[in-house]
Amino acid sequence: MSEITERLTQYREQAQRLQWEGSFEEYLEIVRQNPKVARLSHARIYDMIMEAGVRETDEGPEYRFFDGKLFSLAPQIRDIMEYFRAAAARMDVRKRVLLLIGPPGTGKSTLLIHLKRGLELYSRTDAGALYGIKGCPMHEEPLHLIPHELRPEVARELGVVIEGDLCPLCQWRWRESGQDWTQFRVERVIFSERDRVGIGTFTPGDPKDLDTALLVGSLDFSKIAEYGSESDPRAFRFDGEFNVANRGLMEEQEWLKQPRDFMALLLTLAQEQNIKTGRYALIYADETVIAHSNLHEYEKFIANPENEAMKNRVYVVQLPYALKVDDEVAIYRKMLSEGLLHDTHIAPHVLETAAWLSVLSRLSKPKDASLTLLDKAKLYNGDRIKEYSDHQIQQLKREDPREGLTGLSPRDAMNVLTHAMGQTARPCINPIDYLRAAKTFAETGRFLSHHTREDQQKLVDYIALVRGEYDKTVKKTVMKAFVHAFDQAAQTLFENYLQHAEADIQKTKVVDPITGEPREPDVAFLRQIEEQIGVSEGAARAFREEILLKAGSAARQGRPFRWDSHPRLQEGIERRLFADVRNLVRTTTSTKTPDKDQEEKLRAVKDRLKEDGYCEHCAAALLDYAGSLLQRE
Length: 633
Ligand SMILES: [Zn+2]
Ligand SMILES: [Zn+2]
Prior knowledge:
elongated; single chain; 3 domains; 9% strand
């Protein structure tokens, strides 16, 4: 049997095991063994996240449940977990709608999707198992069968909380059966958004088609005749999203854009754990309510005095964009890994370049006038510059509470990337392609968040800033590649340096490698290297002595002493080599037909670049670009 069919079989067997069904009495025994099966929704979600594990960091706990899914949102997740911790303990906060505010693409949907998929999986495990009344359209808690008078005693004995009443359909069955609980069967409940169990999602579509039935269910007209009355619960379809989401999670998208009666239904659900249908007395529902909205709608909502009372009924968490370049890059990588497969190679530094631009577009000007926006981005990214302390960086982050709520979104970056891919004939795009495409977007108003002239100009300025940083990276990258490709050349340079330095200090001669004749040490050559790292004429002797001492002690201890063993000398050699390289790049990129020797050298450098993730195209583009940068110097 192939591995796949084996897995399919295992899956089916597990699914069958999850199809447990039994009597109410058996269920009571299950609850006695494990009271957690009767948890309310907030507690279930809280436990699910906690059971995945918590990591303590300097900034506070981090929840493994969200690892690899959400980036840069640790403080917001902590805030959300505060909500769940209190709600799980049935504190009053559970009656509030958890409202996530943020611009598009900040992880609101990712967070919700992850909670939903998590709940689906969790309900399939022993730790996350739950049960419902068989045949109940809302798969409600079987303990609702226990009459209120008996509940305090039973709850105490089983160690559970019993909350809520039977749904209209189960109430009808309860009466019809002569209040006989033995007539009810209990089954295991498996959450599934697709099967509409335990997870509800509401997206307001066309306002013309909006009907509260989508939330709270509707009458089945074909059955009214059969049952003779509109108020017979058998003639009602408990298929609204609120009904579906009972026991689990209800997500409301674009909540603050909805008509007021829709918004009110959700508030009632959160506040009173009730679904209002107008046809029945209120229907109890136990669900975690998470709504989201964009910043613009939220600010409008807050500004309206009519909403004063509602403001206290929501628990607001703002989800900003990533302000750390490394986090932003991680988001792109995740998006690319989930997205369409494409054959285009993405050169090294493309995503970093994109991330710098996105982050710059989100930052607000620092109060400290000596700090540029680029400095701020670097500080946020963990670069130690300007001697800023952690405390100062924290202060910087608090300067503007709206920081990160505007600017380019990760989706914008992906759109630019796709556009850049379409613009090039090569099967590869590089950072310059990206910045060019971004400039086109900025100038033609294709970024929704930057539509005014002023916004556009700002973006064009940021693109120039990012390009300046990229230029520095190019020089460093090319230099490193050359030096590594010419490791042997560097070593020879180093050995020559030692030889001549030694002869100079000891007033002896060196042996000419070609003629074999003794000659004076080449002091001019020594100075060429020393000048690269700012060793003055007067300090040269001391520097040479120091190098020789280190070389001598390494030799005595049997340690190798190579060109890169002494950091300052290494830098001198790299720079000296790079001066040669500069000429090489200048000549090879400016002549249409490099000679054989030049070609070989270039080949070695490209091979080195390929080891670092470049392809033939972007390696060539990088060298061309480096050449053009060096021409200008
Ligand atoms: Zn029911
Ligand atoms: Zn490439």
